[in-house]
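Long-time lurker, first post.

We've been arguing in lab meeting about whether pyridoxal-5'-phosphate would sit comfortably in this protein at all. Half the group thinks yes, half thinks no, and nobody has a model to point at. So I'm putting the question to the forum: if I give you the sequence and the SMILES, can you give me back a predicted structure of the complex? Inputs are below. Any interpretation is welcome too.
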Amino acid sequence: MSRIAYVNGRYLPHGAATVHIEDRGYQFSDGVYEVIAVRNGVLIDGEWHMERLQRSLSELQIRMPMAAAALNVVLRETARRNRFREGIVYLQISRGVARRDHPFPSPDTPPALVVTARRTPPMSARVIAEGVGVISQPDIRWDRCDIKSISLLPNVLVKQAARVQGAFEAWQVDQDGFVTEGASTNAWIINSEGHLITRPVENAILNGITRRRLIALARAQDMTVEERPFTLAEAKSAREAFLTSTTAFVLPVVRIDETVLGNGRPGSHTMGLRQLYMNFLAEKTLETD
Ligand SMILES: Cc1ncc(COP(=O)(O)O)c(C=O)c1O
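Top reply:
Settle the argument with this. Predicted structure of the protein with pyridoxal-5'-phosphate, as tokens:
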């Protein structure tokens, strides 16, 4: 089945979809993005993604390319044209096309919008059952990781380091020894009391939508969630650990660097949280069907 992309007002075959060589996203990483899970045509937590998108844009003084309602239509339509049951839509907005020069172009330069969509194969049952390993890496990113910027070079480098070392993810560690987040996921631990611990939302991490959803789901079950920084040492001695993202949902972490957590198998709390999230996905998908 041929894939379809949306580029600046047109739906095009994926292979024929192109942007201008002087798009500021291409030349300066001057843009933002979102990745939204889609199931049976439903954009999962679409409103929260739209909210985060608008915040990222406004922090960078980039205009919305169209009203949020219209953008929603484009996202759904791009997903629909790619015909899948489970997948993601990716959207990217740059400050537009202009002669290469660092300051913002004239205010009437329209922002550029690209939307792609693709099927995502379900995460392998074996990976979920066995859990994944992560490595630690120094966090060399800038001070505004709360903005979902397309400027991802440090994230690319640490994710590649993880791949080379046979790990699923890299947990980035700040100069004080505290874990910030993964290259493309939020980091969590569970202590001996069964409390969930994850870094608070500030400039050092992305306000993950899956993180936000899981906090709400866990609190609704009367679980204790502590939003506070934790060190790499605390993570290595935690009872359980896991990561969250739009594509991984809730994934158990069983190894950090050379340290095996617990008995090396995914913990029961983590598996319960994954189930909680999967139930939420199933309900969301039914509601609007
Ligand atoms: C740096 C970073 N942290 C966390 C996340 C997880 O966020 P979400 O749950 O919204 O996918 C992502 C997702 O791409 C990310 O890039």
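For your lab meeting: Residues 4-119 form a domain with the D-amino Acid Aminotransferase; Chain A, domain 1 fold (CATH 3.30.470.10). The first helix runs from residue 24 to 28. Whichever side wins, do check it experimentally.
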